[in-house]
User: What shape does this take?
Amino acid sequence: MTPLTRDELKKMNEQQHEDFVLINVLAPSAFNKAHIRTSVNVPVDEDGFAERVESIAGDKDRKIVVYCASFDCDASEQAAEKLEAAGFTAVYDYEGGTRDWFAQRNAA
Assistant: This one.
C-alpha cells in the first residue's frame, strides 16, 4: 500500500486523468453525507469487499485508491490491507479522507 496526499490524488484525478478506481470504504450513510465526486462506495466491512472491488476495477492490476473519513480513521488502511491480501497489485491509501479533501476545497 502506498500512501497518497491530497495533492497527489488531485493530480491523478483532475490533471493527469489516470486510470484508477477511487473507493470510499465507509458505510453508505457516511458516503451519502460527503464523498469525493468520482468515487464509488464499497464499505470495507461488507462481505465480499475484495470481490466487489475486483468486479468494479475489472482486474487486480488496476490502480485502486481507497479513502475513508480522515487521518484518524483507519478504515482505508484496513481496506488497503484486505485488497493487498487478496492479490491487488496497485493499492493506494488517501489517508486524509473526506475531511482533508473538503478542508482543501473550503480553503480555496
Remarks:
- The domain at 2-99 is CATH 3.40.250.10 (Oxidized Rhodanese; domain 1).
